[in-house]
Design a protein that fits this description.
By secondary structure, the chain is mainly α. Helices cover 66% and strands 0% of the residues. It has 15 helices and no strands.
Length: 301
């Protein structure tokens, strides 16, 4: 359980008290909303971003992602689409009509490629382990047991809607899945480095201008050694790594003194300044093929 601190801004732990009053088995959508969009919005995004880079350490996943060239040629769209599909699946609740439509869209995207279930399960595990690890290390408070249970509940249901079976039902189960999978499969390939560098370029493009010069080095400094090695990225000086980690921990201490966030965070994609439709989301090559099929059907109608 997270511990309430005697030194904090008034109302700082109101959301945590609310979370502890809820039942993760029933109120998982509400708990996830509070945790990801009010308590730790920036941390959740950063943890998820580092987590997605873990996929590149698995050679078979890296080969497929590299072959599509989505990261190299349409990186910001790929970044926005990934976040938007996650938003569509969770903003109204994981079992809402909006969520089910988003998961059907995701399954259609995945259906264009030959992806085995064990790879999809691993990728799913990164989406929960990444944010949790980040918040445990750099969040302004520790996650509560209710939060871990709710995040796990939503993650497992997300996977079930992808057609996956036998998924973990606890956070520790997902952590074990991820650690065991990486122990067996992590290996460096040229594709993993290309994808990592492409992702860093994407992050630089969407980051505020003052952060861009050091963004590559900071991103690498945030990686654990197995991930950095698998991606073939250069080791950063120890003093620089310590400075980055120290800065994030200082941020966490300062945030304990800040008032709670009152407005839920929502991603505003640069790819779709006028708004998006669900059918806009997906790899450009896939969308082009669907449009050609539609045009042919209309021509022969």
């Amino acid at each position: 359980m997270g511990v309430l601190s005697p030194v904090h801004a008034p109302g700082r732990f109101d959301n945590l008290r609310r979370i502890r009053s809820l039942d993760p088995e029933v109120d998982h959508d509400e708990i996830l909303r509070i945790t990801a969009r009010l308590e730790f919005p920036w941390d959740y995004v950063q943890g998820t971003g580092i987590a997605f880079m873990r996929d590149y350490g698995v050679p078979s996943i890296a080969e497929l992602l590299d072959r599509t060239r989505e990261f190299a040629d349409h990186g910001v769209k790929r970044y926005d689409d990934t976040i938007l599909i996650g938003d569509e699946a969770t903003l109204d609740g994981i079992d809402s009509p909006r969520s089910h439509a988003a998961l059907r869209r995701l399954n259609r995207i995945h259906g264009h490629y030959d992806i085995p279930d064990h790879e999809l399960a691993y990728v799913l595990a990164t989406t929960i382990v990444g944010p949790v690890r980040w918040i445990e290390a750099y969040g302004w408070r520790r996650l509560d047991d209710h939060e871990l249970a709710a995040i796990t509940k939503v993650t497992t249901r997300f996977g079930e809607l992808m057609g996956l079976k036998g998924l973990p039902t606890t956070y520790d189960g997902y952590l074990t899945l991820l650690v065991d999978y990486e122990r067996q499969h992590f290996a460096h390939t040229p594709a993993s480095t290309r994808l990592a560098e492409a992702s860093i370029r994407i992050a630089r493009e969407v980051a505020p201008p003052p952060l861009r010069p050091l963004l590559r080095r900071v991103t690498i400094a945030m990686m654990d050694e197995p991930l950095r090695t698998a991606l073939g990225l250069p080791r950063q000086p120890r003093w620089f790594v310590r400075a980055v980690h120290g800065g994030l921990r200082l941020r966490a201490r300062l945030l304990r003194l800040a008032p709670p966030r009152r407005t839920a965070y929502v991603h505003h994609p640069t790819t779709y300044p006028g708004g998006h439709r669900l059918e806009d989301l997906g790899p450009t090559a896939m969308l082009d093929a669907l449009n050609r099929d539609t045009d042919r059907k209309q021509t022969h109608a």
